[in-house]
Specification:
- The complex is a heterodimer of chains A (about 475) and B (about 600).
- Chain A is mainly α and about 475 residues long.
- Chain A contains 20 helices and three strands.
- Chain A has a domain of about 325 residues.
- In chain A, about 70% of the residues lie in helices and about 5% in strands.
- Chain A starts with 15 loop residues before the first helix and ends in a 9-residue tail after the last helix.
- Chain B is of the alpha+beta class.
- Chain B has two domains: about 160 residues, Penicillin-binding protein 2a (Domain 2) (Alpha-Beta Complex); about 350 residues, 3-Layer(aba) Sandwich (Beta-lactamase), CATH 3.40.710.10.
- In chain B, strands 2, 3, 4, 5, 10 and 16 form a six-stranded mixed beta sheet that branches. In chain B, strands 12-11-20-19-18 form a five-stranded antiparallel beta sheet, sandwiched between helices.
- The chains are: A mainly alpha (about 475), B alpha+beta (about 600).
- Chains A and B meet through helix 8, helix 16, helix 17, helix 18 and helix 19 of A and helix 1 and helix 2 of B.
Amino acid sequence: MGGNRGGTTMFAGVDRIAVMLYAALTLVGLAAILSASWDETAANMFDMSHKYMKQAMWLGVAWFFGVVVLLLDGSIWHKFAYYAYALGILALVATLLLGREVNGAKAWFEFGSVRVQPMEFVKIAIALATARAMSEYSFSLSKAGDVFRIAVIILLPLGITILQNDTGSGLVLGSFLFVLYREGLNKWICIPILFIALLFIVSFFISPTVLLVALIAIFVLSEAMMNRRWRICVQYVAGLFLCSIVIKLVFDLVLPNGFEYYKSLLIATLLSLVVVLWYAYRHNLRNIYLSTAIFFLSMTFMPTSDYIFNSVLKPHQKDRIESFLGLTSDFNRDYNVNQSKIAIGSGGFFGKGYMQGTQIRYNFVPEKHTDFIFCTIGEEEGFVGAVIVLLLMGALILRIMGMGDRQQEPFGRVYCYCVAAILLFHTLVNVGMTMGIVPVMGIPLPFISYGGSSLVAFTILVFVAFALDASTRKGLPVYGIRR
Amino acid sequence: MMTDNGQLPKRALILRTVVLIVFVCLILRLGYIQLFDKRYDEMARNNFLRCEVKYPPRGEVFDRNGEYLVQSRECYDLMAVWRDMPKTGFDTARMCRITGSNIRKLRQAFANARMRPRVGVQIATYLSAEEKLQIDEMYVAGLYTVPRTVRQYPRKIGGNLLGEVCEVSANIIKRDDYYGVGDYIGITGLEAAYEKVLRGEKGLILRDIYARYGERDTVLQAAVPGQAIVCTIDAKLQQFAEELMDGKIGAVVAIEPSTGEILVMVSSPTFDPDKLVGRERSNNYMRLLNHSRQPLFNRAVKSEYPPGSTFKLVNGLIGLQEGVLTTHNIYPCNHGYNYGKIHVGCHEHSSPLGLHYAIATSCNAYFCYVFRNILENKKYRSVKDAYEVWYDYVRSFGFGDRLGSDFLGEKRGRVPTRESYDKLYRRSWNALTVLSLAIGQGELGCTPLQMANLAAIVANRGYYYIPHIVRSIEGRDSIDARFYEKHYTKVEPRHFEPIVEGMWRGVNTEGGTGRTACLAGYDVCGKTGTAQNPRGADHSTFISFAPRNNPRIAIAVYVEHGGFGASAAVPIASLIEEMYLTGEVKRDWLVDYVKNKQINYSRYGR
């Protein structure tokens, strides 16, 4: 971990490489926004109405906040973590009640001409609260109560964002799995969740029966791996399918039109959950409760079936659920992704040159300053430029993870991993969506996308990590006395 | 928290691997779409580049004296690319006003554009430069104009002669790769005959539609302007002839005998060619098409008229060549020709008479004798064999087949074959059965062009050049080789002199049928014709050339139902000759007579 120690006393112990990576990314962002919003016909190029001028101003504000964070005593983050969290939840609820609706999501506050998405800032609070909770003295992820507490901390704001119809931003919190794994969550819970996330993305392409069978297989397998009770798992699967066939035959006899196998499997599965829970209770297998809960949630959250989706729900409800899932049935979605792919794909190896991108210039790419800013880089700077940006981002994430591992106290470690997870999720989803490998969710590319509140929030997010790291390295206690 | 030996815990390493895998995936995907998948380059170009056809200006047409017959005028087509158009709509009412279209047509046009949202679809045509600027001022995205040229006719003459230009039909597009939707093509007359010369070559331009106009154009293929054509027509003479023919139905064709160049070609009634250009084209076209006198029908090359007495020249020449007629032969005429039950009437003149006088007075009886002598020649085994010989002679004068002029749609005319008579009369026919051929009646049909050609043959004393309408083409040394070739008839040149003498007498001596055509000092020769027809009054016709020696003009005038040759056709032909030979017309009274002459065309309706 070759950080630069020393230097001025004010910023002693600050990881300069990480700060430089951060600064490089924000400057790349500003340059990209300048290119995307450059208007050669505008009279005054320094007019504050230009997007790049606004962003430059916000960059100044962000750096100011970054410096302030570094100057603050490192212990306050631990101290005020829960207050910040409470404030954040309040802000989210207030937005839900009083906020302004933008693109169908009621997730914004408007102060004059400045629009703020509270979730950007609440992320910091959630990360702090998670870190605080997980750094409690007797905290253990093998204790159901502790897991439940973490789940509440993470899922409460997620629930509110869902109510705000801003699921995209909320799903970022799913990336906290990354942290939970680092802190010792059983991998046989993490892996099924990842698989579910994958199924979630492809759920619209596969039939509900296959989806259900896949879900059952994932969970049974994970249970078997966790508890090493292969026999009973095989028996369970065999019993389940036998049961589903019997149900189907019975209903076939009763109903004149026959009965879908999918429905009988669904009924059998739901019935079997009772048996599973009884079994878990008898053998005191706590992890089964968790798995069952996740299974049940994924069954209801995911459109596991065309049955529920198509026959029970009315079309407008279906649309609402699709948009609720972030998979907005926006008419222009495919068009946007396609144009974004065209812009990036036409960049080639060295790109078309700064400010020479035709797709950007001619407005083929939607949201070219914000969510699709990566297109500007991909088209104008080509493969080389885009890879450099990705490498900068990757280096920063690894650097922050390194900071986490350097921490002597779990609070700092958990916080740093939260930051890394958030950055990783944003980068993966944002860049992935511009290249058409991830569904479109309206979340920004950290440090690069246009938007003052997002830039300031991300800056504070990472600078708190830098500050915690600096405190550790200066040898100061991060937060007073452990309780 | 590091482990004691300074190693990272296993899970920290796994998570670093996860981060690396995520970034490797992103970079691989990036590399795939940027470096390997080449489709996106093209799609990006398609986004902002548009292939535009650059239409070349169509070649212009001059008359023989360098005066414009057809000019090209600039106009614009309005095109729309639906994809680029504002979805919020625009001022369609204003657009209707500018393009002179109505809202229904405009909606239809935009509906078409919507069907093919990525390509330019024609919305309106024939916009003037001013209207184009008004459209440009509306600043509607997705609309652009394509410069075109349309035809303009300074003298408004020669509608059928010059032909018309219109948009290509789907059939032509299917047949000919060169043409695409919206192209113009010449479909009649000169425009059709010399389409390949006049049209030039279309160009292709790749245009950056978002750049300032023309700033980043790539010329894929330069447009080659159409070549100009110098016509053999004399514009002044053509206009004069059209004025004289106004109100009459028929045709005038004048040829320069020494070259075969067509000086005048009038098909009457004619029309203003400017009417068939522009937005009103289809309306005007339908009006002309449904007109009872059929102005779109080019009578000069498409009408097969009975030649009447003018055909006596041919029979006389054949008789002389065959030796069955000499200038000393004298036949009686007793108000016509009588043989058995057959009677061919004739008008009042002195009798008996010789060849010169027979031509001058156009005696029917005389030529019935001549015709019978030709067919009943003892040289040949039968009348039918003799008829075949006669047929070959007639064909050598250019009758019964296309002359091969540069007019498309030229008619063959009719000269009945031996077989057709065999069929008609069930093999039992003789010279008397087909006697009406002697005086150019019966089954004969000639186009006015063929008749003018006959005048040119006689003027040349035995040969003709194929009549043609193009004198020279820009950038070419010569016109088609067939127009430089002399075509000799089967009658030797020496036999023409008596016929010419007869034609001269017909104009210049007392008792001649074409006295009106006499022009002092120009030795006009001519032969009138009065063709009987089953549809009404006789057709009036006159073929003539002048001067007698070194003739400069040979002319055929055909006026449907004009009565005697002398009453309608002769004055018209004479005035045209006077205009051409002297450069002016002094006989104003004759002009007035011609212009005021009313002919009743009951057959054609009003």
